[in-house]
Structures
1.
Amino acid sequence: MNTSIVGKQFELTEAIKGYIEGGFDSLSKYSLDIISARAVITADEKKGRKGFGVELIINLAHMDTVVIKQKEKDLYAAVDLAVERAKKVLRRHHDKVTAHRTKTEETPSVKEVAEKIDGVDEIVPMELDLYKPMEIEEALEKLKESGRQFLVFNDQEAKLRVLYKRTDEKFGLY
């Protein structure tokens, strides 16, 4: 990472340069490809008040340039706030790049997951017959005939229900 520290209307000391370079070094922890970082320090005096302005310009590969401007009465406070804001921007970009799925990576379907699982009981995707409401007795008969462990259906009041076989050979209803 190329770094540049410039003072406008202000003479930079080695202590200030070292402090700003330490702030730049803390930005490298996000593992982003930072091409260059530049700090422009200005001293302002308006209405008898002294103040300092810090402008950080960070060039990233494959991303637009990040520009952060911060003004404070104290130079070190201005540098700290500007570096914290830069960390926030870089952290958000890092999280976006590493944690979030891109649009090309879609959630796999049940069938795709079933095909990828080796050594596990076979997963068979099924369509649910939820379209017409059923009486509980009708669902019980359908479950007995099918030999399955459970049946999902809508009852006459349009509630989603689950009828299942228990281990004691009785049936349960959610």
2.
Amino acid sequence: MQKLTRIITLSVSIAVISGCSYVGVYKRDIPQGNLVTEEMVDQLQPGMTQEQVTYVMGRPLLEAPFDAREWDYVFRLDKAYAGVEQRRVTLTFDNQGRLANIEQEGDFSQDIPLEADSTGGPATDTTDPTEAIPNQPRQNTTPSTTN
């Protein structure tokens, strides 16, 4: 009977421990949208053309579907072990396509640290794509001359 009690206690303990995330699950920061910094917004001046704004800020994430004069730049960072940080810049253009109004939401005073993922990713133009494939035999690419 004592042996059965130990087996049941051990089984219940293992079941409870396996269901708990005591160690935790790996989480990573998830950035979404246009990265908008204070330096970018400081470069904006009323009267700039849409092309000049695109050069400074990039293409907007959202263009109002019924009014092409309003551009929204939205950036959202879902921090893995903290909260969510959101920034939004809404730019309004006049009828001549000149920047008329700049509205900001969020805290632009701090830089957002974004870590580059150095593990994996697509091959760059300067590398041979076959070098990115592990354990693949390399083929001879020189043409053979057979007569």
3.
Amino acid sequence: MDKQEIIQITNAFLVEEFEADGSKITPDANLKATLDLDSLDYIDLVVVIENNFGFKVNPEDFQGIATFQDFYDYVADRIKQKELV
């Protein structure tokens, strides 16, 4: 799966699951502020990621994720790790 596919899949489920405005989802936008995430929303986000990409998410991984680009990079890295196993 390439980076563009990851971005398309991710943006689609963010718009659907979190009722986000797709036009505000840009690589440099702040993930938490744009999606108006609270602690329960992060749990939902973890479940959606695991269901869509097939890897386990550690909640503490989100501490280093501020922007959508950080999020895309995280997903891409985890998919790459999964493929190497």
4.
Amino acid sequence: MTTISEKQTHGAKTYIAQGEYAISSEEGAVISTILGSCVATCLWDPVAKLGGMNHFLLPKGPPSRADVSSFGANAMELLINALIRAGAVRERLRAKVFGGAEMYKGLTNAGNQNGLFVLSYLEREGIPCDGQSLGGTQARRVEFVPALGKARQKLVEDSHIVETVPAPEKSHDLELF
């Protein structure tokens, strides 16, 4: 079953974006994403050889949007519930977390908040975190092999912290985006 926020992998590479997650037990499956201040959580059940990854934007959103999968608590619950439906046992879940970079100095601390949120959530839920790469000033490309619980990251070389946000140029032109 595939929806806008859930992707089922079938032995190939699956890319997930903000608000999405994917699960698989296929031996050759790889789930990947690119993160800046967002966080991705890789969860797997080592006995069932089943795992998945989510990608969330912020720890929490406005109350009117509590069901949106790009917010931390909802993203975590969606991933955990999908894994359990597919045969994982909650008490055996293990985690690795990535992201939470400070991409724009002084503009926001969303990356730090995301990192603190995910570690706190895992601790509260009793899910051991076996590895983490949080913070810093560079984006990351993360690949996760869900059947084996193996993850790797590569820092994205051309994305460094922006010290200041440039002031908009004065113009009478109208820009639509």
